[in-house]
Design a protein that fits this description.
There is one protein chain. With about 290 residues, the protein is α/β, with parallel strands linked by helices. It folds into 2 domains: about 210 residues, 3-Layer(aba) Sandwich (Rossmann fold), CATH 3.40.50.300; about 70 residues, no CATH class. The protein is built from 11 helices and 14 strands. The two termini are about 30 Å apart. The mean pLDDT is about 95. The structure holds adenosine-5'-triphosphate (ATP). InterPro entries: AAA+_ATPase, ABC_transporter-like_ATP-bd, ABC_Transporter_VariousFunc, P-loop_NTPase. Keywords: ATP-binding, Nucleotide-binding, Transport. It comes from Salinibacillus kushneri.
Length: about 290
């Protein structure tokens, strides 16, 4: 069993019109976890709670097996967050932001900062607040990476980022994960990022974790199956996520168990088609 970098138990936060949690989740070393969910499902709120930008109403956060409060300085040093960290200082030019923030981190790497600033064509003289949305995302990303974090928390890091920079960010994340003691939690709406980067996928809906999957299990178990006939029992079966009458077909999340279900119902399977990640996530979010 790999070590746990992060463990969350019963984490919850109530707003007037929205409740996040209670959430239980864990992040193993060497794993990229994709955090997926519709707009407003609670992804950013979860990051805010993890980063202590907001106080939880209940729950516990553990990092490397120790409570956050006992481990606060390590947490700050070892977590790279690309989200809302720089917003409070947005009146500063980027080079001043660097002067302010780099002393927070004993392992701050100036060479890497300079390298990444050039790679992403960041004008260090420009004030953060004046930068375009995509440029802000790139700056957030650079600041998250430059202090040798063990865990990256990335809140939609490529939203609004140009195609070339997006490709570079993907390359940089793959390089980051070459060290198998590191982990990433990546909130994203981008299927390519899920396919190319993520090992595990957590699906949030209305503040709750509705599914938590290993990506390979999704590929193995989700399929559309055309069948000879559709019975009422099959329509109601818990492993049938969706069905259509003409021609008779079902979508299942348990290909491994479907054969015995069909046999019991005396139904013949005519054709099987594995689903794409995009189709699976749409079914999970729409039919859960
Ligand atoms: N400070 C706050 N006060 C009241 N409600 C809030 C506050 N912060 C967030 N919310 C509510 O919490 C819900 C979840 O918002 P959140 O930003 O976490 O969603 P998200 O999954 O990150 O969405 P998106 O994919 O659009 O970025 C929303 O309904 C939002 O209005």
């Amino acid at each position: 069993m790999q070590n746990l970098l992060l463990q969350v138990k019963g984490l919850s936060k109530n707003f007037n019109t929205f409740k996040l949690g209670p959430l239980d989740l864990y992040v193993k070393q060497g794993i990229v976890t994709g955090l997926v969910g519709a707009n407003g499902s609670g992804k950013t709120t979860l990051f805010r709670l993890l980063m202590k930008l907001m106080k939880e109403d209940a729950g516990h956060i553990q990092f490397f097996g120790r409570n956050w409060t006992e481990n606060e300085s390590t947490w700050k040093e070892k977590v790279g967050y690309a989200g809302e960290l720089l917003d409070a200082y947005d009146f500063l030019p980027i080079k001043e932001l660097k002067k302010l923030i780099s002393p927070w981190y004993p392992n701050w790497n100036n060479q890497q900062f300079e390298y990444l600033s050039k790679r992403y064509q960041i004008n260090l003289e420009e004030k953060y607040e004046k930068c375009s949305n995509g440029t802000k995302k790139k700056i957030d990303f650079i600041f998250a990476l430059c202090h040798d974090p063990s865990l990256l928390l990335l809140d939609e890091p490529t939203a609004g980022v140009d195609i070339v920079s997006r490709r570079k960010m993907k390359e940089d994340l793959i390089r980051f994960m070459e060290d198998d003691e590191k982990s990433i939690v990546l909130a994203t709406h981008t299927i390519d990022e899920i396919n190319q980067l993520c090992d595990e996928i957590i699906v949030l809906d209305s503040g709750k974790i509705i599914h938590s999957y290993n990506k390979d299990d999704i590929y193995d178990n989700w399929a559309r199956v055309w069948i000879s006939n559709l019975t009422q029992d099959l329509k109601n079966h818990p492993n049938v996520i969706h069905y259509e009458l003409t021609p008779p077909q079902i979508v299942t999340n348990h290909m491994d168990e479907l054969e015995s279900v069909l046999q019991a119902e005396q139904i013949t399977s005519l054709q099987v088609q594995r689903l794409s990640m995009e189709e699976v996530l749409e079914y999970i979010i729409e039919y859960s």
